[in-house]
Amino acid sequence: MRVALALPPSTRDLRLDLFRGLANWLMFLGHVSTSVLAWFSFRNYGFSDGADLFVFISGYTSALVFGRRMLERGFVFGTTRLLRRVWQIYCAHILLFVIYLASVHFLAGRFNAPGLIDRFNVAPLLNAPVETIIQGLLLRYKPLNLDVLPLYVVLMGAFAPVLWLMLRYPNWVMLGSALLYLNARQFGWNLPSYPSGVWYFNPFTWQLLFMLGAWLALGGATTMHFLVRSRTVLVIGLVYLLFAAVMTLAGQLPQLQTALPRALFEAFNPNDKTNLAPYRFLHLAIVIILGARFIPIDAPGLRAAVWKPLIKCGQQSLEVFTVGIYLAFIGYFILTTTSNSIAAQLLAGITGITIMTAVAYYRSWSKRVEKQPHAHAGPPAADQSDGSQPGVQQDRRPSSKLNLSA
């Protein structure tokens, strides 16, 4: 069966880089778990947060990159490239997992801070070290804040046959994803965790965000174009975002909570993140629609110097994310063992983001140098991300313009 599918142009969509970088920054600030830095993250102002945005963009870019490779060079080649990326993500998670566990254990003993063991879910390592390591390799055991990459591994690992089908029957695959989401919520489907419980990010429900991104990348954006330009959707969306902000802030501000009907407050608090509550999914969908409306793909402001650090962090997302998770733990440890003042918290946040940005620039430079030909064979290669990043390699093939702003 020959597939005739017009993919978006192969030039970078800087919006994806920008918002993936922003998601990384905000997840870092939220993971530090301090009263001040949390107010700079998404989670206090709406139902969705940086993790939702990260998973959505990952689905979008994965469909673009590996869908193009499947179309141009066949299913087998595209699958091997995709699985190579899965292996890279898995190795990044395991490396972070080992360093994270070792750091928590060492610092807890060295500075007499046993509370770190329980807070970061490292106790199983002390009780059954060999079994804990095995379960970590199987992605069943996850210390605190190490939940996103295992979800990413599972979604990407199962994506090859799904992508093959989506290239041919995108709407039917999206419908199947929605049905899986509904059934998982209805019947409580999830994967088991070690030593007990289930995955914090339920892959059977969170796959809906990943698949939504893939569907939009492969034609869904054209189908949903009318939502982006609808004035009615704009008004309803703004009202819903305001409502979500009030409901979320009520969980942080007792004065606001008392002003709301109890039943209304309890319907949205606590926020069901594990199973991706429908109101959470809707919140991100509206953010995407309004973002596409107000920030077109060719917006000149995207190339302003002020956004370059964020864009660079989005282009080197895997490295920045893993470093950010580790820095969040280090930041929390330093603040709890020294000073937790507002100035110290702000300094920790700025320092962490600076290090993450430095890592992004280093990785970008390193990849560019590796791609340069030897002995002045030609001009330096353009700065490109690898297959998993929010962009695809440049080429000169004509292609129809398909993007979120349509």
Please explain how this structure is put together:
- By secondary structure, this protein is mainly α.
- It has one domain (14-369).
- Helix content is 66%, strand content 0%.
- It is built from 18 helices and no strands.
- The longest helix has 36 residues, at 75-110.
- It is globular.
- It starts with 13 loop residues before the first helix and ends in a 35-residue tail after the last helix.
- Residues 380-406 have low confidence and may be disordered.
Task: Describe how the helices and strands are arranged.
Elements: H1 14-32, H2 50-73, H3 75-110, H4 115-119, H5 123-127, H6 129-137, H7 148-157, H8 159-166, H9 170-187, H10 203-223, H11 225-229, H12 231-250, H13 254-258, H14 262-268, H15 278-294, H16 308-315, H17 317-337, H18 342-371
Helix pairs in contact: 1-2, 1-16, 1-17, 1-18, 2-3, 2-10, 3-7, 3-8, 3-17, 9-10, 12-15, 16-18, 17-18
